[in-house]
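Please fill in the sequence for the structure shown.

STRUCTURE ENCODING:
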């Protein structure tokens, strides 16, 4: 980003970049996991559940791209090694169940992840509110998406 655009963020910029990289890692794991689940889910109720997993996977990819852009604007470097995904993510990766018909387990694990995302983006938005309105907006938009994901997943149970 231009110098003025970075200057207005001030000393919090490096902490914000760190948190955005944690978010990037988590979103990469989520996008992969949801796409996987959308293909892996099997059984009578599977088409509806798979469709939601697919839609959520696309949200998570969009978050990933938006956070990468913001890290670069802030003069940071987006996490470059895929082996850092699990190390940096704010939430543990939840491996999809072996049983393809374990739809309830897939949805419940997903809810755990969405609730962690809600907490994380709520904290990030608070942290940025006064110092970085651009990241504040991004975090708020991500938060709104995660709240919707939680709601949609809950409605399947
Ligand atoms: Fe997300
Ligand atoms: Fe989500």
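FILLED IN BY: designer on duty
SEQUENCE:
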């Amino acid at each position: 980003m231009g110098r003025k655009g970075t200057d207005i963020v001030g000393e919090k910029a490096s902490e914000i970049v760190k948190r955005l990289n944690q978010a990037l890692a988590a979103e990469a794991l989520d996008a992969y996991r949801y796409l996987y689940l959308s293909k892996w889910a099997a059984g009578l109720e599977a088409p509806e559940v798979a469709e939601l997993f697919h839609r959520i996977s696309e949200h998570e990819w969009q978050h990933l791209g938006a956070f990468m852009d913001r890290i670069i604007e802030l003069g940071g470097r987006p996490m470059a090694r895929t082996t850092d995904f699990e190390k940096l993510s704010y939430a543990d990766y939840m491996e999809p169940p072996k049983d393809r018909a374990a739809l309830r387990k897939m949805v419940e694990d997903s809810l755990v992840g969405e609730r962690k995302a809600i907490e994380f983006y709520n904290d990030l938005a608070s942290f940025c509110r006064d110092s970085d309105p651009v990241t504040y907006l991004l975090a708020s938009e991500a938060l709104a998406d995660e709240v919707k994901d939680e709601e949609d997943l809950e409605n399947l149970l």
